Amino acid sequence: MTWLGWIVIGGLAGLIAKAIMKEEGGLIKNIIVGILGALLGGWLFETFGADGFGDASWVWSLLVAVVGAVILIWIIRLVTGKKD
Fold first, then answer.
1. Is the dihedral of CA 37, 40, 44, 46 positive or negative?
2. How far is the C-alpha of 14 from the C-alpha of 66, rounded, in Å?
3. 49 phi and psi, to 5 degrees?
4. Which SS3 state, helix, strand or coil, does residue 77 take?
5. Beta strands in 1-84 (DSSP E)
6. CB 7 within 8 A of CB 30
7. Which range of residues forms the domain containing residue 33?
8. What's the start-to-end Cα distance of the chain, in Å?
9. Number of folded domains that form the chain
10. How far is CA 68 from CA 59, 64, in A?
């Protein structure tokens, strides 16, 4: 996937994860959380034997990124003590 693909998938994943977790933030935060979520989700999925983020279809990549972004937001809330 190209860097532009990472940004688009990351932005969409961050937006979806933000809606699921009722989190605030702008476009840049969505992209960052989505890309980091894609990395986290890809690692988790591959650890448990599923296809991770990368050569899979864009729908699967988006799903992996959203799952990772939701987990990332949850971890950040856990560490910072923010409750919503």
1. positive
2. 7
3. 90, 5
4. helix
5. none
6. no
7. 3-80
8. 34
9. 1
10. 14, 6
pLDDT at 6: 77
| Longest CA pairwise span in the chain (Å) | 36
In the chain, the amino acid numbered 44 is L
Question: By CB neighbour count within 10 A (0-12 exposed, 13-18 middle, 19+ buried), where does 1 fall?
Answer: middle
d(CA 65, CA 41): 6
Residue for token pair 């989505």? 34
Task: Summarize pLDDT for 55-69 with one digit per residue, the tens.
Answer: 668 888 889 899 999
Contacts of 17 (CB under 8 A, 6+ apart): 23, 33, 34, 37, 66, 69, 70, 72, 73
pLDDT at 54: 60
**Contact (Cβ atoms closer than 8 angstroms) between residue 52 and residue 2:** no
Instruction: Indicate the DSSP class of residue 26.
Output: -
